[in-house]
Design brief:
It is built from six helices and no strands. The protein is mostly helical. Helix 3 packs across helix 4 and helix 4 packs across helix 5.
Length: about 90
């Protein structure tokens, strides 16, 4: 929780006001609707980690082909993660 306190203090110093809830809500894991191939899980992960979606898809494919757990994890994430439109206020 200390890193959250530092972020809130830094945001207050910079002149932007934010609460702890806004900090937690700012970075949420979700599925995307626009540009998705199957369920939007890889696109959501790419937005969360701020990396290219192609890289996420390649890594996911490697886990799926070599370990098999990637397929199971993908479908679990598709069931558990909310859509981006469901969490936006």
């Amino acid at each position: 929780m200390e890193h959250i306190d530092v972020f809130v203090e830094h945001a207050t110093v910079q002149g932007t006001c934010c609460t702890r809830r806004e900090v937690f809500m700012a970075k949420r894991l979700y599925k995307i609707e626009a540009g998705r191939k199957l369920f939007g899980v890889c696109g959501g992960l790419a937005e969360y980690f701020n990396i290219d979606v192609v890289l996420v898809r390649i890594v996911w494919l490697v886990f799926a082909l070599f370990y098999g757990a990637g397929i199971l994890l993908y479908f679990v994430a598709a069931l558990v993660l909310p859509n981006k439109s469901e969490i936006e206020v």
